[in-house]
Amino acid sequence: MADAVRKATRESYGEALIELANEGKNIYVLDADLAEATKTITFKKAYPDRHIDCGIAEQNMMSIAAGMAACGNTVFASSFAMFASGRAFEQVRNSIGYPHLPVKIGATHAGISVGEDGASHQCCEDIALMRSIPGMTVIVPADDVEAKQAVKAAAEIDGPVYLRFGRLAVPVVFTEDYKFEVGKGAILKDGTDVTIIANGLMIERSLEAAEKLLEEGISARVVNMATVKPLDSALVIESAKKTGAVVVAEEHSIIGGLGSAVCEVLSEEYPVPVVRLGVKDVFGKSGPALELLDKFGLNAQGVMQSAKEAIAKK
Amino acid sequence: MIEASKKKQLRLLACRVRQLVIEGTFNAKCGHPGGSLSMADMLTYLYFAEMKVDPQNPKDADRDRFVLSKGHCAPALYGALALKGFFPVEDIKTLRKYGSYLQGHPDMKGVPGVDMSTGSLGQGISAAVGMALSAKLNKKDYRVYTVLGDGELQEGQVWEAAMFAANKQLDNLVAVVDNNNLQIDGTIEEVNSPYPIAEKFRAFRWNVVEIDGHDLDAIEDALNAAREQKGTPTVVIMKTTKGKDVSFMENKASWHGAAPNAEQYGIAMQELTELYTKISEEA
């Protein structure tokens, strides 16, 4: 893994937008003065007439995107996760979600891996907010390969989509033959003692944890759950039945994210011990991203510890 | 000047829209009659004299668009749409009732002729801006109209939209401000004054037209002027009377969001029927 190619999923987002337009897809890309950071700048250079900078006004941008979508356009609206899901929550809910318009929200700089900018910009609540909106598809890609496929899949959905991308360069974990499917989880490694359900940058850490757990005689299944909504409930339940214990690992608050989504399904359908690994109802802090992830326990060690806790509760 | 017979027809239609506002809110036992009545003349002119819309083809890609940014005044919009033929007038009686497509605030998914779902103030004008921008980008010549409340101008998003629309030179966009001077908690000056409204829009580099919102000739002149304007969006700031043409509702903030009871319904409908008859009998 250490030798893998590293790339931030926000980079993949910008590149996938160009590929979509190259393929003849009629898309427009909106940004709120963050094109350099969200990487829609790469799209802007290739398709200047299809990129609209709305300035520092995320609420207006989301409703403009809705108006454009109501006129038959597929629109990607980009900002940092904090502002896309937080600042403009009600616009996303009422202008985009309620009329179920095909606006694709490309939210970058999600989670604490934003790093030095600190808590004001480290959004760990976006999944909770976005998945509460009826009809919203929520996708958290793990790497470059998945992110690009997710962008293209989002463009084909006749409704709103929230795409969550990171600032930090992460290893490319999937090979080109990997096929992302909206609403479908993927078993990356099978096991029998515990299931680790993860997404985003926690995939790399969960795979590493699974390898180390195996050295300790613990067999862990690793499930990539890129689509948080609609959740692949069947795979969650099947995994719970097979392994009897579940860890959910995500770079998000333990309140309202993938961990909550998994608990909602299992508590009603097949209760087994679940340990949620995430940001524990606290704000982030400034610091180098990798150091922060370690400090917040969002590393392979944290996943291993969570796995053992879950197994102990069986 | 609007030709006499056309003007008479528009006045009668505006009166009918007002009757449907009373009909709808009375049957719903709730809703927003005050601001619906104040913009009834503008709405009537837009749907019966200004916009290119076809009730037989409500999703025509080239149609003019209307966004009711002050979405709570849906009763007037539904009245105009029903009279235009988008859906049966009789359905107005189902307003706000469970199972009706006539939701409390406009729902573009359910109501034929509604171009944008609105209700949360400040968002409609941005959506209208997005539609006007789409026309430019997609090289279409349709125009986009939106009506805002004057209290709505307190929403910051309105000014985000105003700044953007002028910067993008959206001369295919007309925003109408229904300046009836009243909001839920009192006069707009008492609550949080948006005045001077014209100067604010001028500062945002909009073409500004100020009119009496109950004068159909003035409405026509304003919208014609907007059509001639190149390179900037137009705002029509219209002075109106909240609760217009229903005597006990006029200029009363309390009629912002309250429905008439049976007795009040009777009085209101009688007044509007008398007005209708009076207009009909004019030369």
What is this entry, summarized?
The complex is a heterodimer of chains A (314) and B (283). Chain A is of the alpha/beta class and 314 residues long.
Structure description:
The complex is a heterodimer of chains A (314) and B (283). With 314 residues, chain A is of the alpha/beta class. Chain A has two domains: 166 residues, 3-Layer(aba) Sandwich (Rossmann fold); 127 residues, Rossmann fold. Chain A is built from 13 helices and 14 strands. Chain A has a seven-stranded mixed β-sheet, with helices on both faces. Chain A has a five-stranded mixed β-sheet with strand order 9-11-10-13-14, sandwiched between helices. Chain A has a two-stranded antiparallel ribbon with strand order 1-8. Chain B has one domain: Thiamin diphosphate (ThDP)-binding fold, Pyr/PP domains (Rossmann fold), CATH 3.40.50. Chain B is built from ten helices and seven strands. Chain B starts with a helix and ends with a helix. In chain B, strands 1-2-3-7-6 form a five-stranded parallel β-sheet, with helices on both faces. In chain B, 44% of the residues lie in helices and 12% in strands. In chain B, strand 6, helix 9 and strand 7 form a beta-alpha-beta unit. Chain B is globular. Chain B is an alpha/beta fold.
Topology:
The complex is a heterodimer of chains A (314) and B (283).
Chain A: E1 6-7, H1 9-22, E2 27-31, H2 35-38, H3 40-46, E3 51-53, H4 58-70, E4 74-80, H5 81-87, H6 89-97, E5 103-108, H7 126-131, E6 137-139, H8 144-156, E7 161-164, E8 170-171, E9 186-189, E10 194-198, H9 202-215, E11 220-224, E12 227-229, H10 233-243, E13 246-253, H11 258-269, E14 274-279, H12 289-295, H13 300-312
Parallel strand pairs in A: 2-3, 2-4, 4-5, 5-7, 6-7, 10-11, 10-13, 13-14
Antiparallel strand pairs in A: 1-8, 6-12, 9-11
Chain B: H1 4-28, H2 33-38, H3 40-50, E1 65-68, H4 74-84, H5 123-137, E2 144-149, H6 156-167, E3 173-179, E4 182-183, E5 186-187, H7 188-192, H8 197-203, E6 207-212, H9 216-228, E7 234-239, H10 262-281
Parallel strand pairs in B: 1-2, 2-3, 3-7, 6-7
Antiparallel strand pairs in B: 4-5
